[in-house]
Design brief:
Strand content: 35-45%
Order of helices and strands: HEEHEEHEHEEEE
Strand order of the largest sheet: 3-4-2-5
Structural class: alpha+beta
Radius of gyration: 32 Å
Number of helices: 4
Largest sheet: 4 strands, antiparallel
Length: 231
């Protein structure tokens, strides 16, 4: 009885390993890796801009007052453009020293504002008004999240269909009756367009010209890669 029990116990202990090994061999038999893609270029529909004001003063208090006044004016101006989202950005005040004797020369302050809008005309008009006191640090464009998700969902379907077509083609090429899906990974990529060109268009009532912009395009791609097993 002891020997029989020992034999049964040994088989029970090793049987999962045997089954696992057998399953691995079955899974790796006639397995093919396939990759398919789908991509599309779409127009950027969001405009982003960063503007800043930089001032100097012998004393930090009046410097801060001047910067705050300009920022408040900018926020008041932006209220006339409800299509444009405006928010304050980084702010800093730092001392400037004389290069010769290293004594404190003055204080310099910098404040930023950032804007975002899908209405390029309104955003350009606001930038033109703000440039009476602010300078443009950067202007760039992107695809809105809502539009990006919509296109990605469409491309996922397209990439999946391309994957199936390649799987069918491979099955026929190897004279197999069909296949079963082993694994499938879906990855999305978003490539921004190069920095767009800016043209200057004379504004109707402002000394600073309004910018006519070309938003450019971005490329969105979806990759479907995985494994199939021939039947």
């Amino acid at each position: 009885m002891y020997k029989i029990a020992l034999i049964v116990s040994t088989i029970s202990a090793f049987s999962p390993l045997i089954l696992s090994h057998a399953h691995a061999e079955t899974l790796n038999y006639n397995v093919v890796n396939i990759q398919a893609e789908a991509e599309r270029e779409i127009s950027n529909d969001l405009m982003h801009a960063t503007l800043y004001i930089e001032k100097s003063n012998k004393q930090p208090a009046p410097l801060a007052t001047e910067l705050n006044q300009r920022m408040n004016q900018a926020l008041a101006t932006a209220k006339h453009y409800p299509q444009v989202k405006l928010e304050t950005g980084a702010q800093s005040t730092y001392p400037i020293y004389d290069s010769e004797n290293r004594k404190l020369k003055e204080w310099r302050g910098r404040s930023e504002i950032r804007l975002e809008s899908g209405d390029f005309k309104a955003a350009s008009q606001l930038i033109a008004e703000l440039q009476q006191h602010f300078q443009v640090s950067s202007i760039n464009f992107s695809v809105s999240e809502q539009k990006r998700k919509k296109v990605e969902n469409e491309l996922m379907l397209e990439a999946s269909k391309n994957f199936q077509q390649r799987a069918d083609t491979m099955s026929k090429a190897w004279h197999k009756s069909g296949y079963q899906l082993v694994s499938l990974n879906i990855n999305t990529n978003h490539y921004g367009s190069p920095m767009p060109r800016m043209a200057m268009m004379k504004a109707a009532s402002d000394a600073v010209p309004e910018q006519a912009v070309a938003a450019g395009e971005s490329k969105i791609s979806v990759t479907a890669n995985g494994s199939i097993q021939f039947k």
